[in-house]
Write a structure and sequence with these properties.
41% helix; alpha+beta; 469 residues
Length: 469
């Protein structure tokens, strides 16, 4: 057994007792000054492997990383669990020396398994150990050892979205930091418990960041608290504070999750520093036309490119003076999205999808259907994607044409009939229609009117500045 993987004396004794060891072996442990001496004595007695045999055993495990199809994330998950095992029984102060000893021993073996281990150590080890492992790996490559296919990528995923939420009293908060290898994304999900000292309470890796994000949004809404998107620097600051405190996992499964994920978590947090700058805030300029309306009824809006379809629904409601009484759904090139409470209709949650994800380019189109009875079909086209203006709050309305129809008037054809009746005092329905509209006279009804100020006033309660002046 290597000094990098030494359990404590009490753990050695407990393992021997569990294995049914005789008194002579227990005496060897009891009379040892420390764990290293106990391991040496037991090794001489043929009970445990020598240091050389232990390195070979570890390298045999790393042979699986040389199999076809292994992904960089798969390598890192294996490596994080390896670090967890490596740290067992080694005092924190002794770990750097133990790691250095392991690197030396692995380099001596010098085969493909050794290079695979060294690349993993270079990706996940603390800075000093990572440098030593990388240098040893480079020497093996120079000596002609074949490099694993994943070596150039491992430990270098692209930083993506960081998000989270906290409970209303701030006792616990969840933070997810997401990354991508090409088109395959993953998230490192962290639960921090401030009521237990502000340390990491749970941590795991998910290959479905979209589901984590949807769950966070739902949890925040149910708790009446804010769902927040962080910049990489903001996420790093919060996670470094948590990592600076003692782990506060309460349940066995939480302790195991944190233990196995800690190396990967620390590595991912380090990537948040100096990551590529967050792309400049952009806005989508949309023209939204009420399908079938003659003359056309439309609005031109500018909304954050990152707006969710849930929030775009709310902006359209304000722009057309709808009352949000009815069901609605977006039909997009990648599927249908609507209210979370109505998934039995076959669509996905609009709260989990951003506008930029379904209409990334100029001239892209989507459909918004409001009120499945009246069937108000809004045809949306992306006219432009622009940098957000400093000091400007979005969403905002630039212009539009004609008044929006009132709720429950029977759709486009019903609205046409309403306009004809109100415009004709001789029509037998004229008085009843005015009463239904809540008007004393037809002068209060002007289908050609468009009040930009009124639209922007309604949108203002949902608008925010994307770039400070």
């Amino acid at each position: 057994m290597s000094s990098t993987d030494l359990p404590t004396l009490s753990e050695i004794r407990a393992a021997l007792v569990e294995a049914g060891a005789d008194r002579e072996l227990l005496r060897l442990v009891d009379s040892s000054r420390d764990a290293e001496e106990a391991v040496d004595r037991l090794s001489e007695a043929g009970v445990v492997f020598s240091a050389e045999e232990s390195v070979e055993e570890m390298l045999d495990d790393f042979a699986q990383l040389l199999e076809p199809g292994i992904t960089p994330l798969g390598v890192e998950l294996f490596g994080s669990e390896f670090f967890a095992a490596l740290a067992n029984g080694v005092a924190e102060d002794d770990f750097p020396a133990a790691l250095a000893s392991l690197i030396e021993g692995v380099e001596v073996v010098g085969d493909e398994r050794a290079l695979a281990m060294l690349r993993v150590l270079a990706a996940l080890a603390p800075p000093g150990g990572a440098r030593a492992a990388a240098e040893a790996a480079d020497r093996l490559v120079a000596a002609g050892v074949r490099t694993p296919s994943w070596a150039k990528e491992v430990g270098k995923p692209a930083v993506s979205t960081c998000f989270g939420y906290a409970d209303p009293v701030g006792a616990q908060e969840g933070i997810a930091i997401t990354f991508a290898y090409g088109r395959k994304s993953h998230a490192v999900v962290v639960l921090i418990d401030h009521s237990l000292g502000g340390g990491v309470k749970d941590c795991f890796v998910s290959d479905r960041p979209d589901l984590i994000q949807e769950g966070y949004r739902e949890a925040a809404e149910q708790l009446g608290t804010a769902y927040v998107e962080y910049s990489p620097d903001e996420a790093r600051a919060r996670l470094e504070r948590a990592l600076g405190n003692d782990v506060c996992a309460e349940h066995p499964d939480q302790r195991e999750d944190v233990h196995l994920s800690m190396a990967l978590l620390c590595q991912r947090v380090s990537l948040l520093s100096g990551s590529a700058a967050v792309p400049a805030a952009t806005v989508h300029r949309l023209k939204i036309t009420l399908g079938g309306s003659k003359p056309p009824i439309w609005r031109r809006l500018e909304v954050p490119s990152t707006i969710t379809l849930q929030h775009l629904h709310q902006a359209i409601q304000e722009a057309f003076a709808w009352e949000d009484y009815h069901l609605w759904v977006f039909s997009t090139p990648v599927g249908e999205y609507g209210p979370r409470s109505d998934r039995e209709l076959g669509h996905r949650s609009a709260a989990t999808k951003k506008l930029s994800e379904v209409t990334p380019e100029v001239k892209a189109r989507l459909l918004y259907l409001y009120d499945f009875g009246d069937n108000w079909e809004h045809r949306i086209v992306v006219e432009d994607v622009l940098d957000a203006e400093p000091g400007v709050a979005y969403p905002r309305c630039l212009t539009g044409k004609r008044a929006a129809p009132p709720e429950d008037c029977g759709g486009v054809h019903g609205y046409e009939h309403l306009c004809e009746v109100v415009a004709n005092p001789a029509d037998p329905e004229h008085a009843d229609m005015l009463q239904w509209l809540g008007l004393d006279s037809a002068e209060g009804f002007d289908p050609a009117a468009f009040d930009l100020a009124a639209v922007d006033e309604r949108l203002a309660k949902r608008a925010k500045v994307l770039v400070k002046a």
